[in-house]
Amino acid sequence: MKLSDHQAAFSADLAYMVAWVPNGLPGARIRILEVLRHEIMQRVYVLAGRSQTLKSYHLEATAVDLALDIDGVYQTSTEAYRPVGEKWESLSKYNRWGGRFGDGNHLERMRQPRAEPTLEA
């Protein structure tokens, strides 16, 4: 698959998630915080401790950071994002939830299928 194919699939899955959250999680909504990130900003995030890698999928526009609100309250715990992450991973074998590595509000589409099993409820 070409990068543009992954970007198109990522975009379609993200649009699905934006529509799914208010229906699948009563009282919830998500906000898109960041998708495409320039390499310079990625370096800033790594130096500041906000990211662990210089090889972020944000650099390819195949990752998103979200804000999840439940009943009007912004959620900061990884566990609050679990239903979102589980749904995300169910959409494609290329989709991975950042909660697997401590970044609960992060969703990404990888270039290779997940090696680990999907999340179970």
- CATH topology name, in short, is Muramoyl-pentapeptide Carboxypeptidase, domain 2
Q: Please tally the β strands and state the result.
A: 5
Helix and strand string, N-terminal first? HEHEEHEE
Largest sheet: 5 strands, antiparallel
Can you give the helix content as a percent range?
A: 25-40%
Q: Could you name the CATH class?
A: Alpha Beta
Please tally the helical runs, counting DSSP H or I stretches of 4 or more residues: 3
**Beta-strand content:** 15-25%
Low-confidence stretches: none
> What's the architecture in CATH terms?
2-Layer Sandwich
How many domains in all? 1
General shape:
globular
* Global Rg: 14 Å
N-C termini distance: 30 Å
Average of per-residue pLDDT values: 92
- Report the structural category: alpha+beta
Description of the molecule:
With 121 residues, the protein is α+β, with helices and mostly antiparallel strands. The protein is 35% helix and 21% strand. The chain has 3 helices and 5 strands, in the order αβαββαββ. The chain has helices spanning 3-24, 39-48, 82-91; strands spanning 28-34, 63-70, 73-75, 95-97, 106-109. Strands 1, 2, 3, 4 and 5 form a 5-stranded antiparallel sheet that branches. The model has no long low-confidence stretch (mean pLDDT 92).
What structural keywords apply?
121 residues, alpha+beta, Muramoyl-pentapeptide Carboxypeptidase, domain 2, five-stranded antiparallel sheet, 3 helices, 5 strands, 21% strand, globular
Layout of helices and strands, plus pairs?
Layout: H1 3-24, E1 28-34, H2 39-48, E2 63-70, E3 73-75, H3 82-91, E4 95-97, E5 106-109
Antiparallel strand pairs: 1-2, 2-3, 2-5, 4-5
Helix pairs in contact: 1-3
